[in-house]
Amino acid sequence: MPVAITSRQNPVVRACRDLARGREDDRVLLDGAHLIEDALEADLVFESVIASDAFAAAHPRLMARLERHTLVYVASDTVLEGASPVTSPAGIVGIATLEAADLADALPQHASEGSAYLPAMAVALVDVQDPGNAGAVIRCVEAAGGTGVVACGATSDLRGWKSLRASMGSAFRVPLASAPVDQLFSDAKVAGVRVIASTLDAAAADMRDVTWTEPFVLLVGNEGRGLDPAVAARAELRVRIPMFGKLQSMNAAVSAAVILYEAQRQRQGHDRI
């Protein structure tokens, strides 16, 4: 049976608040039923879960399932608000372990898809500071059949609660790594993975004219200033997304998605337009 928590100063509630401020290990904070259900499906190990009395009453099957995996607590809405990182809590929060992937896992030479082995494609975020953007990129990488996401420089925590929430569960299924930019370049070279920079430079190649069938990692830069020119210059290739009207740029997730889907289109053997 779930254990009742009656104080916002309870150690479990405080642990949730601490994780909302920042992580110090592989523990992650999960907010909302969708994210917690996806974490269960991905076999994450849970430390604890707190649900509001109303949520527990409305979701008996999920509560019973959680009780088979972890310590489950119930609390009033006021106590739950002390544990949830959002202004309007969804009724349930949890703490689980999500280990970081090795860089090699995010930059494999090939990735398996069914019985076939396809050239890998990953995204490296360089100084992308908005966790919502980072989480959306993770979601796009899974949707497009990508192989991983790498956080470089001052990029926000890919396993922080905001990024996890924005990823809509994709963070549990896509390898998430972090590495200095220098290591990314050196390891990619050893692995035979091309480093391709997404840039606004008019002199860069049109992404529609590029062959994306070889293993690659796409560099995506900061929301405001884009990719550092010094970093872009080190890439094997620089590409731009053609834009029309008065639009000058797109956010990180949209940019990554456009290029990844062009890569996937080519890899599936569709005729070039």
What does this structure look like?
The protein is an alpha/beta fold and about 270 residues long. Helices cover about 35% and strands about 25% of the residues. The chain has eleven helices and 14 strands. The protein has a seven-stranded parallel sheet. The mean pLDDT is about 90.
Measured on Cα atoms, how large is the radius of gyration?
Answer: 20 Å
Main sheet: which strands, in order across? 10-9-8-13-11-14-12
Name the poorly predicted regions: none
The major β-sheet equals:
7 strands, parallel
- One letter per element, helices H and strands E, the order comes to EHEHEHHEHEHEEEHEHEHEEEHEH
Average of pLDDT: 92
Strand residue percentage: 15-25%
In short:
The chain is α/β, with parallel strands linked by helices and 273 residues long. 36% of the residues lie in helices and 24% in strands. A hairpin with a 2-residue loop joins strand 6 and strand 7.
Features:
alpha/beta; seven-stranded parallel sheet; 11 helices; elongated; 273 residues; five-stranded mixed sheet; single chain; 36% helix
Question: Layout of helices and strands, plus pairs?
Answer:
Elements (H helix, E strand, L loop, with lengths): L2 E3 L5 H11 L5 E5 L1 H9 L3 E8 H6 L1 H8 L3 E5 L1 H7 L8 E6 L5 H4 L3 E4 L2 E4 L1 E6 L4 H13 L4 E5 L8 H7 L8 E3 L2 H11 L2 E5 L6 E2 L9 E5 L8 H6 L2 E4 L11 H16 L6
